[in-house]
Design a protein that fits this description.
Layout lengths: L2 E4 L4 H7 L3 H11 L3 E5 L6 H14 L3 E6 L9 H12 L1 H8 L3 E4 L10 H22 L2 E5 L8 H11 L4 E6 L10 H8 L3 E6 L1 E4 L5 E2 L5 E5 L8 H10 L6 E3 L7 H18 L6
Parallel strand pairs: 1-2, 1-11, 2-3, 3-4, 4-5, 5-6, 6-7, 7-11
Antiparallel strand pairs: 8-10, 9-10
Helix pairs in contact: 4-6, 6-7, 7-8
Length: 280
């Protein structure tokens, strides 16, 4: 198992310190991390920064395995839906420049006054348009289980199958399923044929957790391997199925983010030793 690091794992540090993408990559270089996921939300001036980031990754042997956008295809206005589609397609040349063909996407959020079926129709329509353009560009869109509209395994599977394009696959986020009251060990089965990308995240039940599930349970982010997702068994299931994509750490715990990241990499090291594999 080769572990990568999402820049989201340091989002509090990044925002508090005004970090640029280069600052994040410098952190990775110092920590010996050579595989990352970048997000559109962290550009301060993409037009200025992109060339510098591409050069830094090449000079320092850092591979960008995925690029993530935060689109919301659920909008009552056609203009809003078109803007969300552009957010996805505008990411294609950025991802290509960074050296990756995987773009993490969202479905959208359930807004007041919008019925579930109507929202789902907009999601399928928008992702169908995006997938058509992704096919032409050689891009794989990886839909993350996130929120009420595509939070459960069956929902993600249904969207992928309705779109019906090999350019739309699944980002299997191991932690987010708990927030829709579905354990990832259940959600993984219907999604196995479609998983092209993995976010390795761990949550644990906590009475004062910041994350509340639809059923009212509260969770907190934690070091990989210390939560309720049963990460080791999920990784074993993915490997047994032949999954060959990236495992991207998305740490969302409290406290020092760097320490949480180090602890999560230690879990990956331990997993690999137990399974006779090399360093993550």
């Amino acid at each position: 198992m080769k572990l990568s690091l999402s820049m989201w794992s340091l989002h509090r540090t990044v925002r508090a310190g005004g970090w640029t993408v280069i600052d994040f990559l410098a952190f990775c270089r110092k920590e010996g991390i050579d595989s990352v996921e970048l997000l559109d939300v962290f550009w301060q001036n993409q037009a200025v920064e992109l060339d510098e980031v591409v050069r830094y990754t090449r000079e320092n042997g850092i591979r960008v395995v995925s690029y993530a956008v935060g689109n919301d295809l659920v909008s009552a206005s056609e203009e809003g839906r078109s803007a969300a589609l552009r957010e996805i397609t505008d990411a294609f040349p950025v991802a290509k420049a960074l050296g990756t063909s995987v773009v993490r996407v969202f479905s959208g959020s359930l807004h007041p006054g919008i019925a579930y079926d109507q929202a789902l129709g907009w999601i399928v329509s928008g992702l169908s348009d995006a997938a058509k353009q992704a096919e032409e560009a050689g891009i794989t869109l990886a839909l993350e289980n996130h929120g009420q509209l595509a939070g459960r395994g069956g929902q993600v599977k249904d969207i992928i199958e309705q779109v019906g394009s090999k350019a739309l696959r699944s980002t299997f986020d191991t932690g987010n399923f708990l927030l829709v009251d579905e354990h990832p060990s259940q959600a993984i089965e219907p999604l196995l044929p479609y998983i092209a990308h993995v976010h390795m995240k761990d949550f644990k039940r906590h009475p004062e957790g910041r994350y509340q599930s639809l059923g009212g349970q509260t969770f907190e982010g934690t070091v990989a391997g210390e939560g309720d997702t049963r990460l080791a068994s999920l990784i074993e299931r993915l490997e047994a199925s032949g999954y060959a994509g990236a495992y991207v750490l998305e740490y969302e715990g409290t406290g020092d983010e760097a320490e949480g990241i180090r602890g999560s990499y230690a879990f990956a090291d331990e997993y690999n030793r137990a399974h006779g594999e090399g360093r993550p």
